[in-house]
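Problem: given the chain below (247 residues), write out its structure.
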Amino acid sequence: MSSDWDFYFCQVEGRPASIFLDLGIAADAPVASHPHLGYVSVEMRQPRPDGLSSQEEFDALSAIDDSLSAGVAGGGNAFYVGRNTSDGNRDYFFFAADPVAFAADVERAMARFPAYRFASGSQPDPDWSTYFDFLSPSEDDRQRILNRRVQLQLEAHGDDQSQPRPIDHRLYFPDGAAAAAFTARLAGQGFEIAPPVAMEEGDVAVDLKRSDRPGDMDDVVLALIADARPSGGSYDGWGCTIVPARG
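Solution.
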């Protein structure tokens, strides 16, 4: 289990969902010694009308989160990799070495919460397909996570994200022709485009600048990614100066 955890919102079976997962463990997954998917599905007692968790139930669900994380994943038999909150349930996902020990650990962890109904089980998943195909964010959702991290850094420094200011972007392309095709698609969008730079690795960097609001970066960045995709481009990130909040 890594320290790189984050969340994103999406739709699961047509319903609003919030997925919280260990992004960092992807670098080591799948772990051959832990080939069994284990799950625990907890029925929430006070969900919101849309099926997500409510503030009224925050403390109780946090206690269940902590108990399962420590009691099931704390002994080394299982890795806790993420959870999905949707449709009035919170579903926890683990990868275990021994499914029998996993079941016993779940029973002990949930014994502290007799008011909550739950179901658990396990099945073989040596490729960790549930982690990669269900829990892991799409390219766009991953970028939203990265955007939010930059926005939180700005907020921590007192930034007013509603104020427009020049924002720098960098993208990489496989060659100069691909970079030129991308920049041609940006015509009329108001970007200042620096001359492409050939990198030592062989790809080509394109730097852009335009005045926008940091709070609008999801729309701005996802549009750039869509424009870059046909040319095989990859988005590297954005940055800007801090504009302090007035007052």
